[in-house]
Design goal:
Order of helices and strands: HHHHEEHHHH
Helix content: 40-55%
Largest sheet: 2 strands, antiparallel
Distance between the termini: 39 Å
Number of strands: 2
Number of helices: 8
Mean pLDDT: 77
Low-confidence stretches: 1-16, 18-54
Radius of gyration: 18 Å
Shape: globular
Strand content: under 5%
Length: 235
């Protein structure tokens, strides 16, 4: 693999992110066998990607990355307008329940309790969303997302995506839950957003071509999933 100023990433974006079909069929949002972390739900391109070797102008790579990311954004928005397969809905619901359990487990740790108190103290005072803790606290959506986001990974019980270094639900689910509760959305709408934000996050993770991380994958990938999840529920 030759990296021209690091922009070989865009080639992997082309190969991994936007190789999607138009239809949502039985267990498919796209083509191939990316597993989305949702067990047997195949929802994207293959996980085994051959290495490639090329030298491409950096500007061309940036342009390619931009185009392919825009295509991925469009695909995610389009998929949000169509029903998920029932099996994908079930798996997304399991991930959601699993990660809520991870938040509750982490919420009892002393360091998380201190951080949570700081988030709530700095909040606006609005009672918009639940902070998962023994006291059953409510706060504004930003504080709730931050407090639950810290708790979700603390005990390392949150789900994991085994085909890439990625926790597709970490941060996406805390941000999504806070925004969805503040907006009064239904469980069905939340599950739909979980599945699509998870898919987006794992596609980005699979597209990462470099052998090592200079930023922790939670920060590199999961934060993108959080942004996509919130955008989906905001419409």
């Amino acid at each position: 693999m030759q990296h021209e100023n690091g922009f070989a990433f865009a080639v992997f974006i082309k190969m991994n992110l936007t190789n999607t079909g138009a239809e949502i069929g039985a267990l498919h949002l796209g083509r191939g066998s990316l597993r989305l972390g949702l067990a047997d739900c195949t929802m994207g391109p293959p996980s085994s990607i051959p290495g490639i070797s090329m030298s491409v102008d950096a500007k061309e790579m940036r342009d390619l990355a931009g185009r392919e990311l825009q295509a991925l954004f469009k695909w995610t928005a389009d998929a949000a307008t169509r029903p998920l397969p029932p099996a994908a809905q079930r798996r997304a619901a399991i991930i959601l329940a699993d990660d809520i359990g991870a938040i509750i487990a982490g919420s009892r740790e002393p360091q998380v309790e201190r951080a949570r108190a700081g988030f709530i103290a700095a909040a606006s005072g609005a009672s918009e969303a639940t902070v998962f803790a023994r006291a059953g606290v409510r706060s504004d959506r930003a504080a709730a997302a931050c407090a639950n986001g810290m708790a979700i990974t603390w005990c390392e019980l949150d789900e994991g995506f085994r085909l890439a270094s990625c926790h597709g639900g970490a941060y996406a689910i805390p941000a999504l839950l806070a925004e969805a509760e503040a907006r009064g959305l239904s469980t069905h709408e939340v599950v739909q957003a979980v599945a699509l934000a998870y898919e987006f996050t794992t596609r980005i993770a699979l597209a990462y071509p470099f052998p090592g991380f200079y930023v922790h994958p939670h920060a590199a990938f999961a934060t993108l999933g959080a942004a996509v999840a919130v955008a989906l529920v905001r419409g």
